[in-house]
Amino acid sequence: MKEITKGTISQAMGIRAAKMRPSRRHISIGRLEKSTTEEDMKEMCTSLGLQLTAIKSISNEDSQSGSFHCVFSEEDSKMLTHPNTWPMNLILSRFYLNERARESLKTLSNN
């Protein structure tokens, strides 16, 4: 192994720590009116005081209700799960990312 006398090994090898990305919460919100748009969801989240990072409709064309994949900042996690935050009869659940969702999210986040 190479002997290093000045500084640290990481300095000598040019190693840097990775930049920390802000933590995010991926949530599926369902049982909305079929006519609900992404803009409607953005307005609702803003009025509730939630910081929406990205949103995408995940409703099937033949479904009877609307649903969305929403990404929120970590700071909003307590408010997201508080029962009085959302209107009644909505379903909130964790959204699990698969490869297709990851790629879609990259394009949403770049806009």
Strand content: 15-25%
Low-confidence stretches: none
Q: Report helical residue fraction.
A: 25-40%
In spatial order, strands of the major sheet run 2-3-1-4
Main pleated-sheet profile: 4 strands, antiparallel
Q: What class do helices, strands and sheet pairing give?
A: alpha+beta
Overall body shape: elongated
Q: Tally of extended strands? A: 4
Quick recap of the structure?
29% of the residues lie in helices and 24% in strands. The protein contains 4 helices and 4 strands; from the N terminus they run H-E-H-E-E-H-E-H.
3D structure, described in words:
29% of the residues lie in helices and 24% in strands. The protein has four helices and four strands, in the order αβαββαβα. It has helices spanning 9-13, 38-47, 77-81, 99-110; strands spanning 24-32, 52-57, 66-73, 91-94. It has a four-stranded antiparallel sheet with strand order 2-3-1-4. Strand 2 and strand 3 (66-73) form a beta hairpin. The protein starts with 8 loop residues before the first helix and ends with a helix.
